[in-house]
Amino acid sequence: MTLLVDPERGRFKALGGVPSRPVSVDYHYGFSADIGAGPFDRRRALVDLAALPTRVLKSGGGAIAAADLPLDGGLQIDDSKSYGPVADRTGVRRLVVQAADRQRPYVRLDAAWTLTADAAATDDTLVLSGLWIGGGAVDRRVEIAGAWERVTLRHVTLDPGGTDAEGNTLGAVQFVVSGAVRELVIESSIVGPIVVAAGGVVDTLIVRDSIVQARSAGQPALVSAPGRVRLERVTILGDVTVERLTATETLVIGKVDVADTQDGCFRFSAAGEGSRLPQPFASHVLSDTRAILVSTTFGDPHYAELSEVAPSSVRRGAENGSEIGAFSALNAPIKLDGLRAKVEEFLPFGLIPLYES
Predict the structure, then answer these.
(1) Mind listing the pLDDT tens digit for each residue in 139-180?
(2) The pLDDT value given to residue 150
(3) To 10 degrees, the CA torsion angle through 272, 275, 280, 284?
(4) CA distances from 165 to 145, 298, 300 (A)
(5) Digit-coded pLDDT (tens) for 183-241
(6) How far apart are CA 204 and CA 228, in angstroms?
(7) Would you give the DSSP letter of residue 133?
(8) Fewer CB within 10 Å, N- or C-terminus of the chain?
(9) d(CA 29, CA 248)
(10) Where are the beta strands (DSSP E) in 159-238?
(11) What are the CA-CA distances from residue 245 to residues 252, 276, 317 (Å)?
């Protein structure tokens, strides 16, 4: 067997045969911010599983069976290996599925992953944290069924789809609510389409410091009706259709259609031309959204970053003068202004600073 190695892109391929033993690879992952699953410090985001009635620790990769998902407890994955398939679970009272600190396990779905709440309880909760969930070449979904009090996705990547290193199609992972959720919270995550299915309901959907991407251009990235949606520092690649919306520092590369424009507000945000917005304040309509981002391909180094030719209303459109979108909290434009001020203050007399973006 011959092994072909691409050191620049960190890829390898076996030629003329299949490895006789399992292959393990060490790698380093980086991104523009602590958004999505990643090997960064997540200690403050972890749930203390010792306080739960049942705790399961898993490592080494492989299938995640129903027994690994306690009905009242938590599963922690202690390494960054690949896992799958994943069993459905019915009758969940309280469940936490999280990666250990500084780990980034990949969970591959071979079918829809459905988690159903305990019908006898009224305060069921679910937390998914630190997981990278993909579906290979086929579109998959994480489905939330039954009645839940609260569902939280924190530092999670639901693969929005695209192509792999060889140009093959990768499916998107939808997050689908077919049951009833009083409060759905998505924090510091990268997710594919969010859909509230027919018969499903989310009373309140909160998305903050996250990237939401549709399967392809012109398709919906977020559909939720009825219910209230709150977006805080979010970049959305695709259309948004909701009943009631409150958004701040949010960038929508697509159209926004809000049914109740008398409720909520669209402040310090931007959306595509033709949007129907609720009480816009210090916000902007984008006539051309094609060149605003450097890349819309998940996995690219500058994925969802603002380009140099993005309008200043977007690059500095936040309430505090930072950029609009998922990276707003980094305050990059404000830090750059401070750096430039110091350079000019201490530059030797007679010299003029030359800045490059």
Answers:
(1) 999 999 999 999 999 999 999 988 877 778 889 999 999 999
(2) 98
(3) 20
(4) 34, 12, 11
(5) 999 999 999 999 999 899 999 999 999 999 998 777 899 998 889 999 999 999 999 99
(6) 5
(7) E
(8) C
(9) 30
(10) 162-163, 169-170, 173-177, 180-187, 190-191, 194-196, 201-213, 220-237
(11) 13, 11, 19
Tokens for 343? 């350079």
Query: What's this model's pTM, rounded to 2 decimal places?
Result: 0.92
Residue 308 confidence (pLDDT) above 70: yes
DSSP, collapsed to helix, strand or coil, labels residue 30 as coil
Query: Whose structure tokens read 């892109």?
Result: 9
What DSSP assignment string belongs to 297-313?
Answer: STTSTTBTPBPTTS-HH
Residue type, 74: G
Residue 357 has pLDDT above 60, yes or no: no
Structural domain boundaries of the chain? Answer: 32-287
Instruction: Tokens for 285, please give them.
Output: 């309509």
**Residues in a beta bridge with 260:** none
In sequence order, the 6+-apart residues with CB closer than 8 A to the CB of 120 are none
Q: Which of 251, 259, 264 is nearest to 221 (CA)?
A: 251
Q: What is the pLDDT of residues 261-304, one digit of tens each?
A: 999 999 999 999 999 999 999 999 998 888 899 999 998 889 99
SS3 content of the chain, % helix, strand, coil (to 5): 10, 45, 45
What number of other Cβ atoms are within 10 A of residue 234's Cβ? 26
Distance spanning both ends of the chain, measured CA to CA: 47
Provide the pLDDT confidence category of residue 13 given band limits of 50, 70 and 90: confident
Q: What contacts 41, CB < 8 A, 6 or more positions away? A: 34, 101, 102
DSSP state for residue 100 in the 8-state scheme: P
Distance from CA of residue 352 to its chain's centroid? 42
Cα-to-chain-centroid distance, residue 181: 19
* Tokens matching residue 261: 């424009």
- The per-residue pLDDT for 356 is 65
